[in-house]
Structure formats: structure tokens, C-alpha cells
Amino acid sequence: MKKKALLIRLAAVALCVALGAVMMVVGRGHTIYLDNKTIEDYQGQEYKSFERVNITVPGEDEVIKLAKRERDMATCMGQSFHMTVEVIEKKGDEPRVEEIDLKLPYNMDGIIVNLPALLAGLPEEAWMTEFIPAPEPEDSSEEEPNIGDEFGMGEDLGMEGDAVA
Amino acid sequence: MEQPAYAIGLQYWLKKMGYPRLIIGGFLLVLFIMAPLTGSDLTTQFTNVVNRFSWNAVLVLAMVPMIHSGCGLNFGIPLGVLAGLLGGTLAIEMGFTGPMSFVMAIVVSTPFAILFGGGYGALLNKIKGGEMMVATYVGLSSVSFMCIMWLVIPYKHPSIVMAYTGVGLRNMFALDSFYAGVLADFLKIDLNPLGINLVIPTGSILFFALLAFLMWAFLHTKTGTAMTAVGSNPTFAKASGINVDRIRMLSVILSTWLGAVGVLVYQQGFGFVQLYTAPMNMTMPAVAAVLIGGASVNKASISNVVIGTILFQGLVTMTPTVITALIHTDVSEVIRIIVSNGMVVYALTRKTEGAK
Amino acid sequence: MKMKKSFNGFDFLQNNLVPLMFIIICVICYPLADLSPGHLLNEIVNRMGRNIFLILSLLIPIMAGMGLNFGMTLGAMAGQIALIFVTDWQIWGIPGVVLAMLLSIPLSVLLGLMCGKLMNMAKGREMILGYMMNYFVGGLYQLVVLFLMGSVIPIIHASVRLPRGFGIRTTVNLTSMRQCLDNLIAPRPYGVKIPVLNFIIIAVLCLFIIWFRRTKLGQDMRAVGQDMEVARAAGINVDRTRIISIIISTVFAGFGQIIYLQNLGNFATYTAHTQTGMFCIAALLVGGASVEKASIGNVFLGVILFHTMFIVAPRAGIAITGDAMIGEYFRVFVSYGVITLALVMYEIKKRRAKSQGGALLAQAQKEGGVQA
């Protein structure tokens, strides 16, 4: 009887840990920056930016429209990213539609994806770079917390200490 | 097993002092030794501690009567503070200035203290055994009620009402032309002219000593011993013909009155009056101080008050300067919160003699 | 004991004094506040969705006779620490909420265990002890979040840390999980947004509480709540049962705080938890609960009445007095006043029961003496 209870407990803990692990994978958020920029020199070759790219990302209402040398971003939860890309390579071309699935690296928050390189079928290191946000200025003013159920008197009912601090 | 005499003596002292007191005392001693190393001079530290002691000691003394009569820690001290604030503001409103305003503040606050204390005492007599929780909330609700009153009572004096509208009292106002420093400046020892930063507010300390002596004397009168009896064994007290409810009521009134006087003393030292939610801030330092001094939920003496206030205020004033200088982070606030509240938690979990 | 149950107006009045008072306050203040019914309803439904879970966490310790669990704030702190980690690890949306809940469990259990053990050392003083534990553990929370996070405990993102390199910023931003539970299924009949998922979670917890009351452990808790000595004589491990009740309450409070904060969308790192316990307890008491008896119905009624007052009072205050602060102070006073009143009534009742018991005992002894 004791053994059974212990087993159930261990199973419950294992379940929680497993669930947590799943959540960490499923819920990991990434911001994906989609670039329509020319790659000047990758192994001696140039990959020109497209005339126009329309990207549909499931879950986002608006279609992302990129002209030459533009960048836009999409957010994504989980480790795989799906998008439908409609490319017009040169002026007057017929649009070409492609479905693309990407595997996202877990450790990157912001990922820059270069579309010309990606669509040319280059290896990952050619089109994926990490987005590193510019360091915030030291004195960046912080946002105010939203007010929930709180009294508008004193921060913390004052029971913490002296009036003069 | 035979133990050498000094070991027994040591154990006796350890027990008598209590570990929390020893730890905090030792910590303070270390701070005092470290203070010169961090560049702050010893006399400044000493001056700070003594001054803070003189502001707070009477408020801590206000804990004693209620603990003695078995009403527990007086978490309802804001009630007394409110009486004191009423006394102070009304004395100013009546036009008194200088030392006279201090005397009048005490005089005016006395009826309020008796009134509040009486009601509070009657309430606590109905709920014996659950005083502390109710006291906490009586304090909180009366402070919030008075918040409304400070806005509504038609005060007129220009130096205390809100600057623009002229209606309602200010959050905080200076006492410069009223009773700031009236006690502290009496017989003040100031060595600054000699180049030593040492100021001792003799008057405030004497005033506290007077009240403490009166308290001590009172506890040795017939009524005072009856109070102790009620606190340590109410059944026995009742059997020996003591009117338990009356004695408890008296202790509550006394506590409340001392709270009123205590806040006035605090204000004269600090130099400002703080209204609205400020009285809530008066509870924890006083409760924690008396406990650090070695009092328990149902036992407290004058020496507990003195030692506790010195230790607690030492902690409050020394830790910021010394710790910050040492590790360049201001953890002192957090240390103080943990120590003072931890002390109260510790006291509440200790088994008390004669507890119901 | 069988007694003829008849409707007694006076008893009814006495038992429901607080809810009735609140209904009167709300009825008087509502027209003065000049709020559209749609707006008010929307606010109340929103607040029900985010607050009820927290308040339900108070029920189990009441069942175990430990009074109002002022120590539920400990759970709220555990929830907040979990949310800080989840924000730092960039786990978004509902998975983020679930992960935060899972992470809060070990912390809540630990804190609940500590609180429960201390409460067992201070029987009869549980409430004041829980109340003081808030401030004590609040200090520890500050130590961890303000000094250890980022220096000892790894924090990845500089956007979460204070500019000095360690400690967490005063506001933690939950943009990526803001209202993710509320918005998943949110029909808006007549412009009133109903957070269906929140209510489903609440319903599950209600069912859990109802089921729990019937389990062996739940029965034990009720026995302990009624009389510790009798329960002990019946072979119940009193101390253990009490600790479990506090742990359950703390864990639920942690979940509740996470639900509450995802609704707000961000939180003040160092102050968001401070008033949680106060608010939940006031709301529960307004719903007609007492220190030793509280039902799920009390929770729902309490949330509706308390928050109606909360929304309406400041505006009514401005309308009556022209001063914004008076209404503000008024609702503070009313909240504290309700708790004070409930505590006083409970203590009086307890004392009366005790003296009656004593009288009965004395009588029994006297009769016994005569027989012998």
C-alpha cells in the first residue's frame, strides 16, 4: 500500500516535470525578422533581393508585404515556423508561391531570416542570424505597472517599518 | 556531571539573554567595530542611535501595559497614535506655539486617548484570547477612518491645512514654530563646537526616563501587581477578587495614552507631523523593538524596552551606513524587514506560560 | 440535535449583516457613480474571472479550523517568482501560464510547509501568525528578487534585470501572456466580455473542493476543524492534516495569483502581492462567510458585492463630496471594517461557546459529584 502511494506520487511528479518540459518547448516564443535584402557575397555568389514578397503567417491577421530591402517581423511560439511566401522576383514576373517550414533554434529570441538566401536553398548559416537588440540606454524609464485591486493609499500598508526611510 | 561554575554562569546568562538578543547584539557590536573601517566616525553613529532611541522609546514603552495584563502585543497602537495626532493638530489649531504647544498637545490628546482606549479596551474584553488579530484590524480600520476625518474636520490654521484648497490637512507638515525639539533641546549636549559630532538630546531621554520610572513605579503599586496577576494567570486573579475586565481596560487606556504621548515625542524629535496612512508605520518598529529587547507575548519589563529600542534603532541606523559601505548594495532595508518581522513570528510561535 | 427550523428574522439579519450592508452601500452609491450598467457588468465579470480562483484558495484552511489564511500571500509570491522565470525564459501564452503554475508548485509547497509548521507551533494564533508571515516572507522575497536574481540565480535577459545588473525591474512585463486565458474563448454578448476559460478553471476548482470535502482527508480536516482533541483521540494526525490544508491553500493561491496577473498584463514586482490576502479575505467575508464557515456561494456573492463597492465607491465619493480621496479612503475603511467586524464576531462567538462548554462541564461535574 505504501509502495503504491509512493509510486503514484513519483508518477505525479514525473508527469508535472514532463508537462513542464513540453510547455517549455511548445511555448517558447521567438520573434522572426524577415529580410528581403541582397546578400552580396556568399561563397562568391550574389543573391539579389526580390522585387516584392508577400508572406502569410498563420495566426497573424495581416499579410506581410516586403518591397526591396525591407524588413518586417512575425512572432512564433514553438520550435517550428510555417509561412506561405509569394515571390515576385523581378518586375513583371508571375508570382511564385512556396510553402516554407523552418526549424527554429531554441536559444535565439530574435531570428533574422534572409529570404533570397533561404529561397535559393542555401544552408542554414547563410540565411539565419541572431537578432541582437541594441543595448537599452541606462536611464530608460520604466513603464508603470497596471493597477489591479489596490488601494490608492501607500505602497504597502506601511507595516514594514519606519516612517522615515 | 560536574560543571565548572563559570559554565553554569554562562548558561544562565545565555538563557537569560535569549539567543535573538545575543545575535542582534553581537551583530550590532560587529557593526560598531566595522564602522570606523568604512569611514564613518563612531560618534556620528552613536549620535544617530541615541537620537533615534529618544524618538521611539516612549512608543515602545506603550507596549508594556497591555503585555502585562495579558492582552498581547499591542498591534492596535495606531489608535493611540491617532489620539496623539488629534492632540497635536488641535493644539496647533488653537494657536499654541513653542513648548506650550507640546504641553497642550499632550493635554488635548489625553481625553481622546481615554475615549479611544476605553472603547478599544471594552472591545478587547469581549474577545479575550483573540486580541492581537482584532487589534491589528482595529488599528488599520481606525487609521483609514481618520484618513477621511483629516479631510473633513474643518481645520483652519494656515500652516497645517493643504496649501491651495485650504480644506483638509496636509500629508506632512513641519513643526519648526511649534514643538519641534522642545524636549531634545532641553539641556542638550552638543560637542560640535569642539569638532566632535556628538549630540545627545538629554531632555527627550529624561522625559522617557521619567515615564519609564512612573511605569515601573505603577507596576509596583497594588493596581500594578494586580495587572501582572491578570496577565500571568487570569483565573487565579479572578479568584482572588480582582476585577479582571477593569484592570485590562486600564492597561489598554494606559497603552493608548502612552502611544499618544509617544507619537508626540517622536514628532518633536523628527520635526514633522505625518498624517493619513503614516500611523500604520508606527506599529512594527515598536512591536519588534520590545520583542528584540527580550519581551514575549505575555511578559515585558522596562529593561526590555530600553534594550530593545537601542538594539532595534541601532539596527535601523547602523546597517544602512555600514553595510552599504562594505558591499555597495543597500540590503539594509531588507535585513531590517526580515529581522523585525522574523522576531514577531518567532515570538508568536514560542510557547507562553499561562496561555489559554 | 433536532430543532424545529423556523424562519427567524432577527437571526437572519444577524447572520447576513455584512452582505446586507454591502447591498445597501452598493444600491446607494450606484446611481451617484453615474456608470452605465454595461460598463459595470463588464468590470464585474472581468474581476470575477481573475479573482475567484484566489479567493477559493481560502476555503480549505477554514474547513480545517485554521481561520482566514492570511498567509495565502506566500503563494502569491511563489506565483510571482515563477512568472519572473517564465518571462525571462520567453515562454509565451497559455504554455507560459501552465509552466508558471508548475514552477510555482514546489515553491508554494515549501512556503506552505514552513507556514503550516509554524502555525502548529502557535495554535490559536494562526491568523496573526499568518499575517506576520506575509511581512517576514515578503522580506525574504525581496532579498531573493532584488539581490539574488541576476547575481546568484541566473537571469538571461537584460530587459528583465535592473540596469545595475542584478535584481528584477520594478515592473515585470507579461505582454506575451497578457489575457491569454481570458481571450481564448471570449464571447461578448451585449458587449460584456466573458472569459469562459477562466470560469471553466474556476468550476474545476469548485468541483475539486466539493469532491475534496468528501475524501478521507477532507473529513479528517473537518474533524480537526471542529475539535482538535477529539480528532486526535480518533487517531487523526492533527498536525499533519493542518499542514496539508495550508499547503493546498498556498499552492492554489499561487495559481490564483498567476491567473490574476495574466489578466493585468504586467505587475509591480515588489508590491503586487502585498494586498492580495487582504482583498481576498475582505471579499470572502463580504459574501457572508465567517472565520469558521465559508462556502463557494460566499465566494461568488462576495466577489460581486465587494467589487461593485470597489468600482462604485470612489466615483460616488467624488459625486457627494467633490473630493476624489474621500471615496478612496472610504472603500479602504469599509474593507478593513468588514474584516474587523468579522473577526470580532468570530471571537465573541468562540468565547461564548467556550464559556457555555465550561458551564456544561461544571454542571456535569457537580451532578457527578452528587451521585458519587
What does this structure look like?
The complex is a heterotrimer of chains A (165), B (356) and C (372). Chain A is an alpha+beta fold and 165 residues long. Chain A has helices at residues 2-26, 115-119, 124-127, and strands at 29-36, 39-42, 45-47, 52-56, 64-67, 70-77, 80-88, 96-103, 110-114, 128-130. In chain A, the strands form three sheets. Chain A has a four-stranded mixed beta sheet with strand order 6-1-9-10. A four-stranded antiparallel beta sheet of chain A has the order 5-4-7-8, with no helix packed on it. In chain A, strands 2-3 form a two-stranded antiparallel ribbon. Residues 152-165 of chain A have low confidence and may be disordered. Chain B has a domain at 41-279. In chain B, helix 5 (77-93) packs across helix 11 (244-270) and helix 9 (222-232) crosses helix 11 (244-270). Chain B is globular and about 70 Å long. Chain B starts with a helix and ends in a 7-residue tail after the last helix. The mean pLDDT of chain B is 85. Chain C is mostly helical. Chain C has a single domain (13-371), classed as Orthogonal Bundle (ABC transporter involved in vitamin B12 uptake, BtuC), CATH 1.10.3470. Chain C is 73% helix and 2% strand. Chain C contains 15 helices and two strands. Chain C has a two-stranded antiparallel sheet with strand order 1-2. In chain C, helix 5 (72-88) packs parallel to helix 7 (126-148) and helix 13 crosses helix 15. Chain C is globular and about 75 Å long. Chains in contact: A-B, A-C, B-C. The A-C interface holds A 16, 19-20, 22-24, 26-30, 75, 77, 109, 135-136, 138-140, 142-146, 148-153, 155-157, 159-160 and C 47, 51, 89-96, 98-99, 102-103, 105, 135, 138-139, 157-159, 163, 169-171, 173, 176, 260-261, 264-268, 271-272, 274-275, 278-279, 307, 310, 325, 328-329, 331-332, 335.
Helix content of chain B: 55-70%
CATH top level assignment of the domain at 29-130 in chain A: Mainly Beta
Largest beta-sheet characterization of chain A = 4 strands, mixed
Uncertain regions spanning at least 5 consecutive residues of chain B:
none
Given the structure, what is the number of helices of chain A?
A: 3
